Amino acid sequence: MQFANPFTSIQIAQRLGGKLLGPEDIRLDGINEIHHVRSGDVTFVDHPKYYDKALSSAASLILIDKEQEVPEGKALVVLDNPFSAYDSLVSAERPINYQHTNIDPSAIIGQGTHVAPGAVIGPHVVIGEDCHIQSNAVIGAHCILGDRVIVGPGCIVGGEAFYYKKTTEGYQAWRSGGHVELQDDVELGPNCTIARGVSSTTLIGKGCKFDAQVQIGHDCKIGEHCLFAAQVGVAGNTTIGEWCLLLGQVGVAQNLVIGANAMIYAKSGVSKSLEGGHHYFGYPAQRASSAYRDLAALRSLRKK
Q1: pLDDT tens per residue across span 89-142
Q2: Residue 205 in contact with residue 182, Cβ under 8 Å?
Q3: For residue 303, is pLDDT > 70?
Q4: What CA–CA distance (Å, rounded) separates 110 from 154?
């Protein structure tokens, strides 16, 4: 997520009330959780298990709970609760907007686009030309839609990510600072839900077609021209290559990669990354040919 205006490392430290270790003048253009950090980003770490990953990442400033040696070209801000500090920065940049009109005045809507009665278009949304946003659909803040996009009735594009940190008091939600991008010619069937990224973009590639009640989690990257049948669910931060076909009620776990041109048969459960160009079936999903051989072997045991 990009800041509206850049900060320096000393400005971040002063704003959060933390102890700065390292240069005071590092320019900071954005804030991202560890999976999506880039040079110029702020990120956080609050467990020794992940110190090395954070300190060796591309991030330029790390919010941390204990003093550590400062890597070259970076700065640290030491705080009692780095997560809360991180979340406060995101919340300040992406405050909750309470709308009083169906279409926020800041939204940009292209020529030939039809927004049906009951649809809601949030602040800073950009919608291209010749789109159709159907009744009771919601397009959340900062989302981007290309040209000729169809959003079916009841869809939620850009809802908050289902992403929580466990604390002794319960689960604390991360404020979602990312957004959703639907590229040209995407079609969403009724009641699909596409979660915004925690700190990056949830991307649905050009020409994708989704049936009813498809759920895409935060920060997923779906390649071009994929077909997802009804009730497919993809958990957060998973990448799916182009021209993939997921049949009804397929479930895909988080943080996986599925290669291009894969086909996953109905009701399969994907628990690990899969190579592209093959057909998969079962739970855990495996090559369909192997899965069918296993089923045949089970049937033969029953006959004995």
Answers
A1: 999 999 888 889 999 999 999 999 999 999 999 999 999 999 999 999 999 999
A2: no
A3: no
A4: 21
- CA–CA dist 227, 210 (Å, integer): 6
Query: Contact 63/97 with Cβ under 8 angstroms?
Result: no
Alpha-carbon distances of 14 from 18, 62, 294, rounded to whole Å: 7, 14, 62
Coil, helix or strand at residue 10: helix
Q: Choose, from 218, 225, 278, 279, the residue flagged as catalytic.
A: 218
Which one, of 49, 69, 71, lies nearest residue 60 by Cα? 71
Helices (H), 94-139: none
- Cα 116 from Cα 28, distance rounded (Å): 41
CA dist 253 and 236 (Å) reads 8
- Indicate yes or no: pTM above 0.85: yes
- The number of beta carbons lying within 10 Å of the beta carbon of residue 139 is 31
Residue 152 dihedral angles phi and psi, to the nearest 5°: -70, 170
**173/17 Cα distance (integer angstroms):** 22
Look up 218 and say whether it is catalytic: yes
Task: Name 172's Cβ contacts closer than 8 Å, sequence gap at least 6.
Answer: 83, 84, 87, 164, 165, 166
Q: 161 in helix, strand or coil?
A: coil
